[in-house]
Every structure is written in C-alpha cells, then in structure tokens.
Task: structure prediction
Amino acid sequence: MDFIFEIVQALVALAALSLIVVLIIAHVTAEMVTLTRHEKEKYFLTVTGEKELFPSLHDPSSRELSVVIPAYNEELRMPVMLDEATEYLENRQKQQPSFTYEVIVVDDGSKDKTTEVALRYSRKYGADKVRVLTLVKNRGKGGAVRMGTLSSRGKLILMADADGATKFADIEKVEAGLNALKPKPENMAISCGSRAHLEQDSVAQRSMFRTFLMYGFHFLVWFFCVRGIKDTQCGFKLFTREAALKTFSSLHVERWAFDVELLYIAQCFKIPIAEVAVNWTEIEGSKLVPFWSWLQMGRDLFFIRMRYFTRAWKLQSAHKTE
Result:
C-alpha cells in the first residue's frame, strides 16, 4: 500500500510540475496584439487607380453596413459569393434609399488572382461600395478579418466567408437577432450565425473520426473558453461598431481559432451575444485540413485560456492601428 501511495504522490507531483511548465511556456511564448500595418496596407485603389487612405474604426460611422470578406486564394469561389452579396445589397438600397453599404474584400496574401477578381467588382460598383485591402503577407483568417474591420465605415459590421456557404440574405436573420438584444445605451452587441441546427445531418454524413473531432472541439471550446454558444465557428457574424472596436482591439489569435477568442473577449466584457440559425451549404475547396486544423485549433484553445489565466494576455482598451 505504501508503494502505491508513493507512486500516486509521484504522479501528482509530476502532473503539477508539467502544468507549471506548460503555464510558463504559454506565458513566455505569448505574442502581443500587433495592429501595425505595412505601408501598402493603408491604402485602397479607386476606380481610376489612385491610392486613397482607408478610414479607421475609431472614426464615426458613415455607412449603415460594412461587409468584411477575408479571402485567401479565392479567385474561383469568391465571384459567386460577391454576385449574391452585391445583388442583395443593391436591391436593398433600391427598396430603402437611406440604406448605405460597403464591401471590403481582404486578400490575405493570396498567391492567385484574388485581388484582381475583387478589383473587378470595385470598378463595377465603385470604390465607395467595394474596396480591396491586399495584405502584404498571409496573416490568417482572423488577422484578415481584423484588418478589414479596423478599416470599415459601417454602423454594423458583418464578417462573411468568401465561399458563400451562408446564404447572404440571412443577414436579415442575424440583424433581427442583434436588434432583439437591445444593445442600447452602449450599443454593444454581437449576433452569430449558427449551423447548430444542422448538426445531426452533418453527423450522418461524416466519418466517425471527423464526428469525434467535431465533438471534441466543441467540448474544448466549452471547457476552456466560451459557454452558451453552440457554434462558434460559423463565418457569418454581425457586430455593432462599438462591439467590433472593443473585441478586435484585444484579439491575439489570427488563425482558425480567432472566433473563439473573439467571443471569449466579448463574454469577458459582458457584451450580449445572440445565436441565430442560418442556411448553410458546404462548398468544395475549403482550406481547412480536418485533422491538422482541428489539432491546431485545440492547441490554440488551450493557450488562449492559459495566456489569459497567466495574464500574459490582457483585455485591451481600444487603440488605433499604426
């Protein structure tokens, strides 16, 4: 019995030591929020080819809606999404003349003709409605969304994926969810599109291994970071301008798990969050590699929690980009 007790003690000590080592690693390797832009990333091209300075999220809003679309090597899939989005937005403007909008396509260091494709829409609709922000190097989806958001003019800001997996007209659903939160007086609110209602169908179509990965990721999200939101990863989220400034100013993770940190930050600030069912279709050509991407996201979830726990990361007050 004494021998077993000594083994248990040794295992507990080893586990405690391992945890301390991991916490130290999480703290030491933590990267700080960096909002510095390359000189080329400060400008967009007008229809005549002239450079104009992007505005700042700190400026007062001058449009009803900004749509931020992160795009990495999306020359083939993006036109379908942009056609659907611009058709909807133009029709809405005709029906509601006071409605104003902008679309910001953020080319996340693509190696194909993503920027050229997006610029065609800018020439068609004008740079006041469609702007292209080309990042000098690949930051990751979270980094691209943040750069686009910090360059937007909208009273409301929608992030939407370039593949068009979510029906764009469902913006009306997430808007209704946002309005139901009654974000006054500070005007802080976030409305998340959700695919949770489609989960049973997706389980039936997935392999057992991918289903295991999905449920495992959901558990890690709940355990480490965000509770009360069933689908944190749907790329269709609507923010009030004030909520976007508050959350994106503190965002550290720039790759796939950025949505989780964003919602974690929002819950820390007690920003109300709605989750709204949207129509969603899986589109071929996803950049997500099932096993390795889930592994990376699982690691990121653990480090998100540990870095806030050790105070390596702190919630920031909103500050301007340079």
The chain has a mean pLDDT of 86. The two ends are 64 Å apart (CA to CA). The longest strand covers residues 63-71. Residues 30 and 161 are 28 Å apart (CA to CA).
